[in-house]
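thought: fold this chain, then report.
action: predict
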Amino acid sequence: MSDSVILTRALTKRFGSLTAVDAVDLDVRPGDIYGFLGPNGSGKTTTVRMLLGLVLATSGSVELLGEPVPRRAKRALGRVGALVEGPAAYGDLSGRANLTLADAAGPGGPRPTRKRRVDEALERVGLSEVGRRPVKAYSLGMRQRLGLAAALLRRPELLVLDEPTNGLDPQGIHEVRALLIELNAAGTTVFLSSHLLAEVEQVCGRIGVLDEGRLVLQDDVAALRAPTGNTVVSTPDADRAVSLLDGRVAARDGDRLVVRGPEPADLNALLVGEGIRVTELILERRTLEEIVLGITGPGSDRVDGRAAR
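observation:
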C-alpha cells in the first residue's frame, strides 16, 4: 500500500482496437490540488471513471486512498466526493431534496445529522437561498453548484471534480476557486479536471497532462514555471536596445524584447548606462498554457479555452 491518494500503474483501457488510455502512471499525493489536463478525446474522462470504479480497466492497476479499485472500491468511495460529467439531479425535486436523497443513497454520515450537512453543503456553494426551488428552474451554473454540494456532503478526504466551473460566471468561478483552496487548506486533496488553464495555474500545485491516452507530463507547477534564463524587457527605445545587445535578443514584439544572457540587474545597468529607457524588466517564465499546448497534439477541442473532454 502506498502513501499516495491516487496511484495508477500502467493503467490502460481499450475499446476494441482503440486504446483510449495507454499505460498511465498517475501519482496524486496527500494535500495536492492536482490539475488533470489534455485535449478533447485525450482519455481524461475515461481515466477518471476508472479511478472511481465506474469503468473497468483493460490492464494495469488503480489505488484510491490506499484501496485497490474496483476490488475494494466501496471502502474508499465513502471517503471520496465526486462530480464527473456534469451533475445528475431530479428536475422536479428541489435542490435540498436532491441532496437529501444523495446522502441517503450513499455511505454517508448518520441520519440525525443529515439536515445539517445538507444545509452546510448548500451554504458552501451559495445555494442556500434557492435550495427549495425545483432543480428544473436552475441555470447550468446553479446545477453545477448543486453537483459540487453533493460532492461535499460527506466532508471527503478526496474530491474528484470534472470541470467544476462549467457554466459559472466569473464571480462563480472565483468562489469555487476560493472554496477549493479553503478545502485543501483544511486537509482535502483535490483532483481537478479542467480546460481553464488560467484557473488551473492559480489553484493547482501539480499537474498531469494526457495526450492521445498517454501521460506526457506530470510535475509541480512551480518547477514548470521556473525562470527560463531569459529576461523580458519593455523599452520605448527598442531599436537602440536591439542594436546594443548585438544578437542576444531572442524575440521581439514591438517594444517588448526577450533577451538571452546577462542577469537582469546587469542587463538593466547596461541599458540605462547607454541612455535606453526601461519601463519593465522581468525574468521570463512560460505560462501553463504555453507549456501544455507545446506538448499536446491537435484535438477537436483543445485545452486553450474551448470545451475539453
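thought: worth noting. The chain has two domains: 6-224, 230-283.
final: C-alpha cells above.
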